[in-house]
Amino acid sequence: MQYIEKWDVFEVAIPGKKDGNPFMDYNIRGTFQKEDKVITVDGFYDGDGIYKVRFMPSEEGRYIYRIEGSFAESVTEGEFLVRNADSYHNHGCVRVFNETQLAYEDGTPYISIGTTCYAWVHQSMELQEQTLETLRSSVFNKIRFCIFPKFYDFNKREPITYPYMRGNGEGIDENLVKKDEKDRIIYPGMEPPAIDFNFNYYWFNPEHFRRFDMRIRQLRDMGIEADIILMHPYDRWGLNMMNRECCDAYIRYVMARFSAYRNVWWSLANEYDIIVTKTIGDWERYAQIICEKDPYHHMRSIHNCLKFYDYSKTWITHCSMQRIDYYRHVEYTDEYIKQYKKPVVWDEIGYEGNIHVGWGNLPAQELIRRFWEAFLRGGCAGHGETYLDKNDILWWSHGGILKGESSERLKFLKKIWQEVPGNYLKVGKGIFDEVVGVVESANDGSNYSNYEIHYFGIGQPAFRMLYFSEGEEYEVDVIDTWNMTITCMGRCKGTVKIELPQRQYMAIRLKRIKLV
Amino acid sequence: MQYIEKWDVFEVAIPGKKDGNPFMDYNIRGTFQKEDKVITVDGFYDGDGIYKVRFMPSEEGRYIYRIEGSFAESVTEGEFLVRNADSYHNHGCVRVFNETQLAYEDGTPYISIGTTCYAWVHQSMELQEQTLETLRSSVFNKIRFCIFPKFYDFNKREPITYPYMRGNGEGIDENLVKKDEKDRIIYPGMEPPAIDFNFNYYWFNPEHFRRFDMRIRQLRDMGIEADIILMHPYDRWGLNMMNRECCDAYIRYVMARFSAYRNVWWSLANEYDIIVTKTIGDWERYAQIICEKDPYHHMRSIHNCLKFYDYSKTWITHCSMQRIDYYRHVEYTDEYIKQYKKPVVWDEIGYEGNIHVGWGNLPAQELIRRFWEAFLRGGCAGHGETYLDKNDILWWSHGGILKGESSERLKFLKKIWQEVPGNYLKVGKGIFDEVVGVVESANDGSNYSNYEIHYFGIGQPAFRMLYFSEGEEYEVDVIDTWNMTITCMGRCKGTVKIELPQRQYMAIRLKRIKLV
Q1: Does any domain span residue A105?
Q2: What is the pTM of this model?
Q3: DSSP codes of every residue in A325-345
């Protein structure tokens, strides 16, 4: 009998009907049962006459299944065994934990250090491989990217495949693309695509989606969450002008195809509010389809440009935020957590780089500062790089290699974060304008009954006074978040003056020693 | 006949009654007349049996005057001539101009670059002289300081004089001061002063106020506005526990004594909202006394700590603001200008320095950035330095010398500001997240019909695209606000790519050439 690990994908592939439009004309579904627990999932057509059903088991033991639908005359049945999840990176799905935190399904803390390469899966295979190599040695454990290709500044090349075919499954005429000279984004009802691609939005391109399968699996096996963006505004192919039937079919296709990967998150949109062809009603309908068709209830959110979506909607698991003010944003993390009672994930806080726009020319120091602000206030943040490149390969969209100074500092941040009892800080009160992240009572068997990180951000203090109460004893560390050093100041009590190097981005960590 | 310059002080000193408490028991007033214009001002007792009346004429020509009151049996009359204000720094009082701007009375633009040395006039005479020397070669044309001494961190030394005497004009017993060991600020109704100074709050110390006369005159002759703080919270001498009668008498004494200096501004309080002994009713009453007793209507405001005063009050000429948010403040300048329809003067936006508190450990770069933000949005800002010093001499409170890097950059800012047609920018719309200050139509006879400064702040763009309309031609300069360089890029039209050095704090200045 076939064995798989818990939270891996069990896939059944069956030949079926090929006449008409198999994507639309036939259905396939699978029913998976373990003891009295039954889960039904939709399958999908993968081209070449093959239909597939995928399933992610979340329990150990024996499952039986039954595949049926109009795609074939017969029913397929079978069984498989699920063993313990003992692969290094297999901890199940990321879930909301303690209302505002994140953790893997097996209880392992999920310390989210995200990055963004919107269109990396649309680049040449060589570049995609390089991106994977870079990710492999990086700290990132979440990456945001788009299923649809991207057209935007620095993103003028055509994707290597399109999500749709023409006519009854014909490919795109390359000459058509070469003829096109226009740099433009297609907005609603404005005009047809720059090129008459003549896409059939009822006919998916399996090659396109198979590559996403592969990349999602590779990310999964590296312990990286795939924060998949279903729709976005940067379109020249008419993808934002698809009718409602096609949009809904697309959402269902993605659910059937990718849900069984434990590492997927659903980001309904990037910058939903500038996709002017969609209404809130559309987003809510997509959300409803996702809630129905993803039986695993992966993380779900929707990302804004100028205006947050209403994160209080029950289908939204976490706030996937882009800053809506140029000057103050991550500094509100604790307030948003309080307001929405959900994890706050700052998926866009500007990128390290040097391009012409304010969101893409931050010094690494400032990006790192924003990560620390989010972390100390109980949230997490996402990275990106936008350094000019002679081949227009910018990490933020294309992947490739990292050129900046921030990603190394994020490794250091992760180390500090891992040392926090419970891996979660709440914002405390700083008496000298610093930001303070606090663990009020560490219950995790650590040696500390209280734990605080005081962060001075852009300030450059030369010293800091500490006032401990009678009977209290603390281990004190000075942390240089930029130069990535931790200097132990030993055990302290009473009133202590801590000398600091008069540099920016310093922190002091206070660990109150449990008295025996 | 005596001659004085317009906007200088005409002073009459007359011996008078010395029995009882001359500060309270007798009055003196002067009536000054030119043609049909009559102004009456209060005089004041200056000790040693001498009463004084001061008057600032604002017109050229012959004035007659009459001094009278209960201080003497007889009336004194006389006349004097007022000639043109031809001293280098004599432009009259600073006034509100065009609703939200500042200018001197003679129409000269007032480009406000302020600084703060709260307690400089309470330091040793040598240190005060050094402060004046520093100011002489600095860019500052406004300084904030307190009449009452200051007790606070780094401010634990007693002042060289007190504003009040004991008993019937006796001085302070030096031994009393030496005995005191307590570091504490006197808050409301809490307790009496740390030392029983036994001040008679009805009996001013003329020596104290004479020194302020001298310093205000010296500042005036250097072209520096004296932003005089009447009350503040940092008290150990019971000055915030004076009764209403004494407070009102103090305000009247200050008006009679200092109003005739053209360079005074009235700051009713520093951090009014943490002087818990005062109510809004008290501040409003002081304001009323000031409006009545200052016939020249000097600039009037009140400075906050955590909560702005209601700047819409008609007696307030300008918003004297301290940031109420740690992260975003000067970036609201244009919004406050719009809200209050008054000039916005950021008197406290943090200081360059390295002390333990967030407001006092900014890098110079950040302080300069804040000045530029305020300037580009139509406001102005104030400087301060808080570098640790082995003798606890910090510019922000004690004066002395400047150690930082910001004051030189403020000279550069002033130069750029002076070059702006009309010396005033309104905020414009930046398309790439930059802040833009704009002169929409320069009417001052300059060669430019449109003038813009685009400032990139903490961003580090490597280039910037400019898109000019058909027929437009601009002179373009790249400004490095930190390194203080201006690089002329020549005349530009059409679409232009401007290379930038990928450094923070850069700006681009665009001057549209008038077509003849």
Answers
A1: no
A2: 0.94
A3: SSS-SGGGHHHHHHHH-S-EE
